[in-house]
Amino acid sequence: MEWTIHGRRAIYESPWISLDLVDVELPDGQRFEQHVVRMARPVAGAVVVDDQHRALLMWRHRHVTDTWGWEIPTGRIDEGESPEEAARREVEEETGWRPGSLQLIVASQPSNGSINTEHYLYRADGAQHIGPPTDITEAERIEWIPLSEIRSRIAKGEIVSGPTLIALLHVLSEATA
Question: Is residue 8 located within the same domain as residue 23?
Answer without folding.
Answer: yes
